[in-house]
Amino acid sequence: MNQGEGTGKDKANAPNEAEQTDKMLRRALNQWDIAFLVIGAMIGSGWLFASAGASSYAGPAAILSWLIAGFLMIFIAFAYVEISGMLPKSGGIVRYPQYTHGGFASFMLAWAYFLSAVTVAPSEAIAAVTYMSTWLPQLTISGVLTPIGVLVAAVLATFFFLLNWFGVNVMGKTNTAVGWWKLAIPSITFILLMTLAMHTANFTKLAGGFMPYGSAAVFLAIPTTGIAYAYLGFRQGVDYSGEAKRPTDVVWGTVLGFIIVMAIYVLLQVSFIGGLNFNNLYLVNINTQTNQVVQVIGHPSAGTWN
Questions:
Q1: Beta bridge pairs of residue 108
Q2: C-alpha 23: how far from its chain's center?
Q3: pTM metric for this prediction
Q4: What is the pLDDT of residues 247-298, one digit of tens each?
Q5: Per-residue pLDDT band at 26 (split at 50, 70, 90)
Q6: How confident is residue 301, by pLDDT bands cut at 50, 70 and 90?
Q7: Other CB atoms closer than 10 Å to residue 272's CB: what's the count?
Q8: Distance between CA atoms of residues 160 and 127, nearest Å
Q9: Interatomic CA distance for residues 240 and 33, integer angstroms
Q10: Cα-atom radius of gyration of the chain, to the nearest Å?
């Protein structure tokens, strides 16, 4: 047998090996399990940063940014869940291109997906440390991690790595609880803000009205402030499609999780903008971050609102 024949057989056996691996998976996830996988992936540590960032770019019209991005992204989700319903394969984001465009396309997408995946744990760690800096200001300076902050972020990233290293057994047992936690905290946040601290004037009395920076800013906020990044979490349901009890569980679970999270993000953005009391907002050190806040509040008239 020459070298070319061996290579051809190896390529032919590759899909068969993948099929054998699929048979080893336990199909135990129902549509709510899939939905919570999607919710857990879409709601991360940056759930407040995205609202703040979108407001700094688009003002109150950031609400439209979330709605437009969700409307566009759900059609991408529809395409994937339709395929995963017909061909429920774990790791479907990478495997479907292999079926349609061959191994090279799948290889390139797999590396792109891998590079995006390895940034998740560090970004979650950085977000967590940034939140912690509210009580431990020595962790950051002007929004940038200090050496101590970097050390704390490294410890958190290591913890996230170990949590995934111990496998799906640990993640499977904790995912539903984490999903409920990720639903409860943002929901309680926007309910309390809307109930106790809503200022409707914030939506219309900025200089320029509801859309102070124009329609271009509404679209600019989608890729630059974490909105598109948040919505891409729907892929988690597709990746676990090979472990769903029924193909329809992947379809309905992914769509259900996406719609729930989209509603939460939109309501968070509404409550974030409406919940600011500008009369109690004091700007001390004018830097990049506070300049963004000045843009959002329309500084010259901020003191006139109640």
A1: none
A2: 30
A3: 0.74
A4: 788 888 889 999 999 999 999 999 988 887 655 444 333 344 434 444 444 4
A5: low
A6: very low
A7: 22
A8: 13
A9: 10
A10: 22
**Spatial separation of the C-alpha atoms in residues 262 and 77, rounded to whole Å:** 13
C-alpha span between 153 and 147 (Å, rounded): 10
Q: What is the 3-state secondary structure (H, E, C) of the chain?
A: CCHHHHHHHHHHHHHHHHHHHHHCCCCCECHHHHHHHHHHHHCCCCHHHHHHHHHHHHHHHHHHHHHHHHHHHHHHHHHHHHHHHHCCCCCHHHHHHHHHHCHHHHHHHHHHHHHHHHCHHHHHHHHHHHHHCCCCHHHEECCEECHHHHHHHHHHHHHHHHHHHCCHHHHHHHHHHHHHHHHHHHHHHHHHHHHHCCCHHHHCCCCCCCCCCCHHHHHHHHHHCCHHHHHHHHHHHHHCHHHECCHHHHHHHHHHHHHHHHHHHHHHHHHHHHHCCHHHCCCCCCCHHHHHHHHHHCHHHHHHCC
Average pLDDT over residues 7-11: 48
- C-alpha 239/C-alpha 228 separation (Å) is 19
**Mean of pLDDT values over 13-29:** 60
Asked if 81 and 237 touch (Cβ cutoff 8 Å), the reply is yes
Orientation angle between helical segments 47-58 and 288-297, nearest 10 degrees: 60
Are the C-beta atoms of 92 and 238 separated by less than 8 Å? yes
pLDDT at site 249:
84
Residue 91's CB is within 10 A of a number of other CB atoms, namely 19
Q: What does the block give as tokens for 122? A: 């560090």
Helix axes 103-118, 92-101, angle to 10 degrees: 160
Whole-angstrom Cα distance, residue 192 to residue 198? 9
Residue among 36, 65, 85, 35 nearest 229 (CA): 65
